[in-house]
Amino acid sequence: MDVLKLCGLGIGAALMAMLLRRMRPEAGLGVAVAGGLLLLTLLLPQLQIAVSGITQIAAVGHVPEPYMAQLLKVGGISLLTDFSAQTCRDAKEDGLAMKVELAGRVSLIVLSLPYMQLLLTQIMSLSP
Questions:
Q1: What's residue 82's pLDDT?
Q2: DSSP annotation of 128
Q3: 30-35: long-range contacts, CB 8 A cutoff, minimum separation 24
Q4: pTM above 0.85, yes or no
């Protein structure tokens, strides 16, 4: 889908949410969340194209499959964490948004631990 249409949808949902929030705050939040989910749903085909393209590039570069799987997980966690935190901010829950971001960062560290250990082992094998 064209990025202009997606941006227009986002701006339209934001304006509608802003207007509704004045009369019924819970309705405004519902419109904002629904708009975000609709945007995310409309982005799924493009996300599939991106994943396919990254996978093809990795195949050309002979990148092992486990590394690609980890890279795609990192990207997915980052995007999902950001989307969730922004949704929390829309609900005026900044504290919860920060905790969602913290959870995402911890997940990324845990996901990268095996590679950090491998890298450290290789570095240590080079030193006398």
A1: 93
A2: -
A3: 32/87, 32/90, 32/91, 33/87, 33/90, 33/91, 35/9, 35/10
A4: no
Please, where are the H alpha helices in 1-128?
Answer: 3-23, 25-60, 65-90, 94-126
Q: Tell me the two tokens of residue 72.
A: 């795609």
Are the C-beta atoms of 106 and 77 separated by less than 8 Å?
no
33: tokens are 């969340």
- Six token digits for residue 110: 């845990």
Residue with tokens 């995310």: 40
Q: In this predicted model, what pLDDT tens digit does every residue of 83-116 receive, in sequence order? A: 899 988 888 889 999 999 999 999 999 999 988 8
Distance CA 70, CA 93 (A): 31
